[in-house]
Amino acid sequence: MANVSTDIKIDVDYISAACNCCPHSLDWQNGPRLIYGVTNSVALCSDTAPFSVRKTFSGHQGRLNCVKWVRQEQRNSNSDFYYFLSASVDKTISLWKGKDEDYTKYTSLVGHQNSVTTVVGYQQSPNDDIYVASGSADSTIKIWCITDTLATCLHTLDFKNGFAITLELVPLDNHKNIFLLFVATDKNKVQIYQVSNSVIEQIFVLSGHEDWIRSITVQKLTSFQWFVATCSQDNYIRIWQLSFNESNNQTNVDPTILKLKRSSFALKITDESPINVNVELYSILLGHEEAIYGLCWYPNTDLKKAATTILSASMDKSMVLWTFDDNQKMYIDKARVGEVGGNTLGFYGCTFSPCGSYILGHGYEGALHLWKIEEIDDRINLIPQVINSGHFNTVEDCCWDRHSGRYLLSVSTDQTARLHAEWKRNGIISWHEIGRPQIHGYEMKCLTFIGSNQQRFVSGADEKILRVFDPPKNFLENFARITKINVDEDIQKAQSLPEGANVPALGLSNKAIFDNDENQTTTTSAVIDDDPMTVDGLYKEGFFKAIVLNEPPFEEHLLQNTLWPEIQKLYGHGYEIIAVASNPSGSIIASTCKASQPTDAAIILWNTNTWKPITRLVVHQLTVVRMAFSNDGQYLLSVSRDRSWSLFEIDETNFQARLYKRISSNNQYHKRIIWTCSFSHDDKYFITGARDQMIHMWRVTEKSNDDNEHPCEKNYLKLNDSITAVTFAPRLIETERYFVVAGLDNGSVLLYTWNEQVSWQHLTSITAPLGFHLTVNQLCFRPLLSSSYQLAGCSNDGTVRIFNISLS
């Protein structure tokens, strides 16, 4: 195998990724860009709207619990580096260094004995040491000092049977390397520690909350006046004022203002007199109806707003912007935003943008919610903005629209099918999720489009049923406005299209809604309210409402206004669906399910005109994991856990199929499960890839007299990991070579050229941070692109990615 000198350029056009479903997994305010945890990696977003993900940095073996920028109070210039921290269930903390979009792992902090749940870091100036405080499920807090790349654990606090939920590390001004550490424990209190290189000592306790404290945020108004805000699962926010050097705070006190009792403590500074600190409860805020998980002060770029504006996010599906009213001498909720409808829980966290002009929240299912702050006189308007998110669990399959690759569909174990397309406006093109055709009650496993002359797809999940979906009229109209693609032909083909769809109460099927149903929906809603003790009253439907969109929809619209109506169910399998495929004309569907014996491993062929099974192809011994029809529709290829493949000849006219050739389970070419297969664009060859790290190329028409088929050449391709996805490009490259892409179990995507004369030649690899970092489940080229290539893929890392590939 030789490397080839073809010039190749690869960039990532789209990364769809949801935020990890845990608090502290997102940060924006303390650094130059938005970062958040995506399974085992950190997503870095662009610095301009719509803040799309540009790269993902992976350095952990387990899910990330916490992602934080290292706060830097003194920056000399824009040439200085930034740092961020990532903490994981793999018991380690990674420190990353870089700027713009280029970051590398600087060092790792290893010492905790269990999952690291919270972390915070601080650096005073670019050349100073970095101090990090981390809390873990092993009931300890560790204080680290990082000099160059050497990480030293300075102190360890052991809480015995307790643990730290969140913490904050704040430096004392005018005293280098002396900090106050605020720790929220499972005792519903905030413990304050004085920390230096040599000593850690508890000096005070803030009490008052009646449930776990979920977030601590500190705002320095001046060196002598700090505001400490905490939020809790008791639905309250408490704000304390810390006043340093009492003499500086006794002047100009208004005796008419009612003050709560003050407490105080002393900070002992070596070779200096102690610093007295007065503590008083400044305010208690009540405005949420559920546990409050996120709290964030306004960025201190504007000192007037710094301690007068605070943002909170709660499990009651709302975020509140609180401002201090000078007339009433109290904090009032100036603006309130949040999700409406859908079967979601609330927010896990919130943040301001570094400039303070945006607020961002992340929800229970990983979705991001962005608003722009507009101040008009004394009023604050929060304007919803478009921002990408994605699947919050492994993505199992993806497929391009067969008509011309107008959009990409993906399915995931998060029980949703999502539709990704281009948003075109003012000469700008960006990819976004613009529809969620299926929100299911089972984990989704596979999908395929049915034919190229209609936008119809069939999906399979962890159930025995295949479900078929058609696009509603409202989606087609919005799709045309967002993508600027003419779909009048699709609308004319089906004049009786429903307007939209919704899921009935306690149901799994998307029910079609027509124009004349809208009045009925309103009436039904009124009846439900009158009788709340009925099943429909207790479990209300997320009613569809036709909306006109000129930009990608927000999360609440995706949840209930972009469903596709289900037109058919296909029954026939005895176990959970694993794979599904459709021939190019859309007349035949092939499907398989989990199997441990030949009768269950049968491939069922379905007639899409009658929706009835044509035949059962019983050839394999175990589960068929992938199938592919040839581009002319004459052949169906299947690969199985039994280490064999089978090629069937399809008679589309008479709806018949027969076994054309196969290899047996004890073949000499694949020794482990065959995961993937694909036909070349001219149907002369097909390719198979397996867990044994082998790729073989086979001729379609060449046939032996027994089950001992042979690859078309002995120069097989051996890679360094299991092959889990493989695909041919839709055309030859200039030198009459086939362009083949393989995805591996470790997340790498390898690009090769091949022909029988020259054999395999390696072009390049797509790896992190542009590429995947966990198992690649599917790869597919966008059809009908004339010059360059667009490759879509999905992975166990929860992302869907589209790569632009240019060859010369």
UniProtKB/TrEMBL annotation:
Keywords: Cytoplasm, Nucleus, Repeat, tRNA processing, WD repeat. The keyword Repeat applies. It holds the Pfam family WD40. WD repeats lie at residues 109-144, 206-250, 285-332, 667-708. It is found in: Cytoplasm; Nucleus. SMART domains: WD40 (SM00320). Belongs to the WD repeat ELP2 family. This is Elongator complex protein 2. The lineage of its organism: Eukaryota, Metazoa, Spiralia, Gnathifera, Rotifera.
